[in-house]
């Protein structure tokens, strides 16, 4: 099975530059996913694919970090960024179609993010 | 300056198998802009992974969707096996491939039926589903469930198919192939169908690649992405073409799916001829510790399962990125500039499976 | 350009039997492997509660003191995970689906298993 994949951790400030590099080399956006790894710490994986080789960029943020949007380079990324905001509470700035929290409406705001974990501890 | 009105499409609409909401901005009868909105069927599967052991989560992962359920279960199992370094027996790989291709056949036949329904051809809808019944009968005889199979587990498959039954399945496929040829002739040659689908919802090759289209939506515009060519399960030992078409309209997407029906029948017959004897599962001990992006080809496109474990029985994260989620931006692009009466046909041509999208 | 492509299929379906079954007058299609409902044999259950832990829908509740095994038929998804993991093989899958009822509730079964008498087992290791 030839499913090669690499994960490259980078700083939030270098995100736009690296994504632009992938765009110029002809990679397509596969997915943007978020994982909760600590009390107020999230890992965001940006996956890019070309000819079945998967390259991932990983940034580690908190709920208050402002993450720049990549919709300037990949128009279709608004789906993932809105979902990330609605479920985890990550602040993404500059999305081309910003639903402002109404993309996925849930009974508890940011269900996978910080607020629910604090309620469970109580 | 013509007045713009907003017409809501969905969440309940006769052509939609699952609820999605689109706000169509119209000028006269032409759609100018589309604002999609999902969230009607969000069940919070990704939160449930913290409360169910990784061996039991297969049943939850399978129930993400009712149409493409087998491949969800198989991809999850393969992801866990890659993290833990388990090698499943060859017979299990071949059985997973055979069931995946049957799942693809039933999904494409279901889609052909709904597609005919979207432009009002009810008789064709019923005939497509009549053939689909024969596929579901085979699924029920070999796994016990018509749409939710429950036959994958971490380490292999739960039930075996006897060689006599496999030979019978291979013979039945010849008569199913003949019925499907009659059916696809109507979809591709009939004048009324061509009038409703030619040059409707055009997606150019550049747009398809950069907006992230996958599956038949991308292959209908000339982008040859088929994850089966990476060779997971038994696909590395089977020979099959990647079906593409260059026009990018609804007719092309229908053509790609019709041709994939016959490719799937060929793959199943090849796999039945080549399947080796042996055990169908291995014992699994321990817990997954690590992460992996497992990708597979669903009937609708590329599926990504991201799994992360930390050495306990409960996984840290299971992120499922289904093909319909990434086909929504191309849908928005396709709908701009079309007529209101063509909206159901275009929405259905990306094969929306919204229950997968929202998990 | 084709007209009347559908004629052959339409004529054939008009002249042949319907593809649908007149359910409930005729019974639904069943195969030997079909997953219908769980059957519990109380005389073999050793109250290990593995089935309760393995159930993904949390439909089984076992009480060792009250000797009762209850299942919520509406929560059960017929995955047969309990059937595969039961060590004393007291659970099995029946192909007939649960009949519809008008009220939700759990079904309670009593466990009638009696452990074989102890003295015979203790004597062997001493010898």
From TrEMBL, chain B:
<feature type="binding site">
    <location>
        <position position="353"/>
    </location>
    <ligand>
        <name>Ni(2+)</name>
    </ligand>
</feature>
<comment type="similarity">
    <text>Belongs to the complex I 49 kDa subunit family.</text>
</comment>
<dbReference type="InterPro" id="IPR001501">
    <property type="entry name" value="Ni-dep_hyd_lsu"/>
</dbReference>
<keyword id="KW-0520">NAD</keyword>
<feature type="binding site">
    <location>
        <position position="320"/>
    </location>
    <ligand>
        <name>Mg(2+)</name>
    </ligand>
</feature>
<dbReference type="GO" id="GO:0008901">
    <property type="term" value="F:ferredoxin hydrogenase activity"/>
</dbReference>
<keyword id="KW-0813">Transport</keyword>
<dbReference type="GO" id="GO:0016151">
    <property type="term" value="F:nickel cation binding"/>
</dbReference>
<dbReference type="InterPro" id="IPR001135">
    <property type="entry name" value="NADH_Q_OxRdtase_suD"/>
</dbReference>
<keyword id="KW-0175">Coiled coil</keyword>
<dbReference type="InterPro" id="IPR052197">
    <property type="entry name" value="ComplexI_49kDa-like"/>
</dbReference>
<feature type="binding site">
    <location>
        <position position="65"/>
    </location>
    <ligand>
        <name>Ni(2+)</name>
    </ligand>
</feature>
<dbReference type="GO" id="GO:0016651">
    <property type="term" value="F:oxidoreductase activity, acting on NAD(P)H"/>
</dbReference>
<feature type="binding site">
    <location>
        <position position="46"/>
    </location>
    <ligand>
        <name>Mg(2+)</name>
    </ligand>
</feature>
<dbReference type="InterPro" id="IPR014029">
    <property type="entry name" value="NADH_UbQ_OxRdtase_49kDa_CS"/>
</dbReference>
<feature type="binding site">
    <location>
        <position position="68"/>
    </location>
    <ligand>
        <name>Ni(2+)</name>
    </ligand>
</feature>
<feature type="binding site">
    <location>
        <position position="356"/>
    </location>
    <ligand>
        <name>Fe cation</name>
    </ligand>
</feature>
<dbReference type="InterPro" id="IPR018194">
    <property type="entry name" value="Ni-dep_hyd_lsu_Ni_BS"/>
</dbReference>
<dbReference type="Pfam" id="PF00374">
    <property type="entry name" value="NiFeSe_Hases"/>
</dbReference>
<keyword id="KW-0533">Nickel</keyword>
<keyword id="KW-0479">Metal-binding</keyword>
<dbReference type="Pfam" id="PF00346">
    <property type="entry name" value="Complex1_49kDa"/>
</dbReference>
<keyword id="KW-0460">Magnesium</keyword>
<protein>
    <submittedName>
        <fullName>Ni,Fe-hydrogenase III large subunit</fullName>
    </submittedName>
</protein>
<keyword id="KW-0560">Oxidoreductase</keyword>
<feature type="domain" description="NADH-quinone oxidoreductase subunit D">
    <location>
        <begin position="287"/>
        <end position="359"/>
    </location>
</feature>
<feature type="coiled-coil region">
    <location>
        <begin position="159"/>
        <end position="186"/>
    </location>
</feature>
<keyword id="KW-0408">Iron</keyword>
<dbReference type="GO" id="GO:0048038">
    <property type="term" value="F:quinone binding"/>
</dbReference>
<dbReference type="GO" id="GO:0051287">
    <property type="term" value="F:NAD binding"/>
</dbReference>
<dbReference type="InterPro" id="IPR029014">
    <property type="entry name" value="NiFe-Hase_large"/>
</dbReference>
<feature type="domain" description="NADH-quinone oxidoreductase subunit D">
    <location>
        <begin position="120"/>
        <end position="283"/>
    </location>
</feature>
<keyword id="KW-1278">Translocase</keyword>
<feature type="binding site">
    <location>
        <position position="68"/>
    </location>
    <ligand>
        <name>Fe cation</name>
    </ligand>
</feature>
């Amino acid at each position: 099975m030839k499913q090669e994949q690499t994960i490259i951790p980078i700083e939030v400030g270098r995100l736009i530059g690296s994504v632009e590099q992938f765009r110029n080399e002809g990679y397509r956006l596969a997915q943007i996913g978020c994982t909760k790894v600590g009390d107020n710490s999230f890992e965001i994986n940006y996956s890019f694919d070309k000819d079945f080789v998967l390259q991932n960029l990983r940034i580690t943020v908190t709920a208050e970090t402002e993450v720049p949007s990549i919709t300037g380079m990949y128009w279709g990324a608004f789906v993932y960024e809105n979902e990330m905001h609605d479920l985890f509470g990550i602040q993404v700035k500059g999305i081309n179609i910003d639903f402002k929290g109404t993309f996925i409406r849930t009974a508890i705001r940011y269900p996978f993010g910080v607020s629910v974990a604090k309620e469970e501890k109580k | 300056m013509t007045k713009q009105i907003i017409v809501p499409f969905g969440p309940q609409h006769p052509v939609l198998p699952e609820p999605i909401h689109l706000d169509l901005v119209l000028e006269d009868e032409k759609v100018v802009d589309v604002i999609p909105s999902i969230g009607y069927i969000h069940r919070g599967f990704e939160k449930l992974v913290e409360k169910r052991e990784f061996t039991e989560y297969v049943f939850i992962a399978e129930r993400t969707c009712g149409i493409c359920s087998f491949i969800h279960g198989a991809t999850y199992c393969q992801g866990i096996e890659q993290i833990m370094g388990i090698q499943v027996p060859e017979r299990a790989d071949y059985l997973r491939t055979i069931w995946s291709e049957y799942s693809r056949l039933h999904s494409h036949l279901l889609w052909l039926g709904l597609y005919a329904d979207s432009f009002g051809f009810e008789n064709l809808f019923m005939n497509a589903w009549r053939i689909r019944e024969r596929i579901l009968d085979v699924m029920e005889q070999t796994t016990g469930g018509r749409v939710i199979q429950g036959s994958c587990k971490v380490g292999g498959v739960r039930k075996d198919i006897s060689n006599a039954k496999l030979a019978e399945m291979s013979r039945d496929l010849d008569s199913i192939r003949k019925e499907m040829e009659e059916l696809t002739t109507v979809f591709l040659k009939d004048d009324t169908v061509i009038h409703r689908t030619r040059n409707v919802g055009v997606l150019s090759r550049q747009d398809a690649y950069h907006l992230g289209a996958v599956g038949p939506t991308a292959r209908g515009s000339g982008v040859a992405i088929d994850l089966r060519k990476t060779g997971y399960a038994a696909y590395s030992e089977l020979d099959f073409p990647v079906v593409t078409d260059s026009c990018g309209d609804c007719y092309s997407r229908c053509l790609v799916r019709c041709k994939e029906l016959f490719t799937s029948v060929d793959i199943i017959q090849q796999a039945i001829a080549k399947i080796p004897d042996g055990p169908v599962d291995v014992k699994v001990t321990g817990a997954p510790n690590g992460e992996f992006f497992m990708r597979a080809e669903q009937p609708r496109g590329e599926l990504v399962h991201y799994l992360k474990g930390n050495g306990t029985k409960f996984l840290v994260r299971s992120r499922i990125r289904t093909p319909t989620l990434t086909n929504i931006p191309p849908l928005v692009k396709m709908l701009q500039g079309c007529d209101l009466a063509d909206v159901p046909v275009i929405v259905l041509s990306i094969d929306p499976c919204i229950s997968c999208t929202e998990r | 350009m084709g007209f009347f492509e559908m004629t052959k299929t339409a004529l054939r379906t008009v002249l042949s039997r319907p593809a649908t079954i007149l359910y409930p007058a005729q019974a639904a299609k069943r195969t030997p492997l079909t997953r219908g409902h769980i059957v519990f044999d109380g005389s073999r259950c050793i109250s290990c509660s593995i089935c309760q832990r393995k159930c993904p829908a949390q439909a089984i509740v076992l009480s060792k003191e009250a000797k009762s095994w209850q299942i919520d038929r509406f929560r059960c998804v017929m995955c047969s995970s309990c059937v595969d993991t039961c060590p004393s093989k007291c659970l099995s899958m029946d192909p007939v689906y649960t009949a519809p009822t008008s009220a939700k509730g759990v079904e309670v079964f009593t466990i009638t298993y009696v452990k074989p008498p102890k003295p015979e087992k203790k004597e062997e290791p001493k010898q």
